[in-house]
Amino acid sequence: MKIRFYSLVVLYFSFSALTATYAQQKQALSQQLSLEQAVKLGLESSKVLHSSQMKVNAADAKVQESGASMLPSLSVSGNYTRLSDIDPQRINLFAGVDFAALPKASQDAFLPLLAQLNKPAESGSSGGVGFPVILDNFSLKASVAYPVFTGFRLEAAKSAAEYNAQAANQDLTKDKIETAFNVKNAYWTLYKAFQLKKVAEESVTQVEARLKDAQNMLKNGMMTTNDVLRLQVQLSNTQLSRIDANNAVRLSMVSLNNLLGLPLATELNLTTSVEYQATTTPEFEQSLQKALASRPELAATELRIKAAEENVRATKGSALPQVNVGVNYEMANPNQRYTLAGAVWKGTWNLGVQLSWTVWNWGVTGYQAAQAEAQVAQVQDNLEQLKDGIKVEVMQNYLSLLQAKEKISVAKQGVEQSEENYRVTNEKFKKGSALTTDVVDAETARLQAKVSYVNSVVDHEVAQAKLIKSIGEQTVAAGK
Fold this sequence. Notes:
With about 475 residues, this protein is an alpha+beta fold.
């Protein structure tokens, strides 16, 4: 009995621990989320923005590289060489001199010199200078090089890199705007799904209550079986709508979680709601001019045009002379400038100026300049095409916003009318002066009106966000 009792206690506590763990995990996978929080999370977790930031970092590093290439450079090198062994080499300084024919006094004068040159004086031959054989050769060299004049190529390359870095920053701004819009769009899509789910659940509840009343009336002989069947069919249809709405919520939530970098199974509770308030829509021309002045794509393309023009200048600079200055200091063992020093370390230095100028290369420089100029023209054409696309985008989003505002007023009026129609029809049905078909039609019309209103309100928010994006603004708009 004791063993069985202890087993039950262990089983109880194990079950309690599992229940607590499940509750903690469920709580961890549930999150309250406002629109501003969603945008912030989306910007922080976006892989697109991370990639764009890395492009900015690379462009900034390219600017630093271009600037560093204009400064003096220092290089250090070391070398060791092992040579094969050879016989010692000597230079005969008195070849062709007949010492025997010289007077005795002259012969006596050369004897000390011959002895100094390690040549036996009694041989009567001319002396010679011996060179040592050094098998191990070492050298250490430090060099400083400075490009004095490069035909303005380095200056142009640095300017082009600076323009490209600024363009990369504009691309990052564009990606931030697009990411924020994608998050807002996903947020409002989930909000719409929640609202449609709520409408579907309310409809199911009402139809279930009406069916229950109809079944009681059938028992009392106040309603026919066919009328009850009609309500059962309506209940099945509303239940199907609820299933679709639940699935839409799950799919929309997965999409938003993915954009925010959250676990896909996270349950999101949206705290920002939509309450439409009539606002004044800015004039189209005003929106268009603001878009042409604010869109980062345009600024980036204009900067790339300037960078391409700098590339043209750098290419043409190849036709100009190039002047470089170099200073070298070498420590070597042996040092070739000290021929007879032997195996000792000696240091020497040298200073040089180099002038190079490609006088004729069969027009290669001109062809390269023509290619660079053609690239400038291409980027300029891209700028004009981009402006045309922005004009169309602003116009489309502007018209969509106007349409959304009109649909809200119509949908709101439809909800009011359908509510009144349902109320009147339901009262008649209770009094027996309206058919079940009339009530079903009124309920269906009311459901459709509510769905249309939810769609129109959320579509207005999305249309407003699209217009803000097309103008080039980064504000988190609307909602309460």
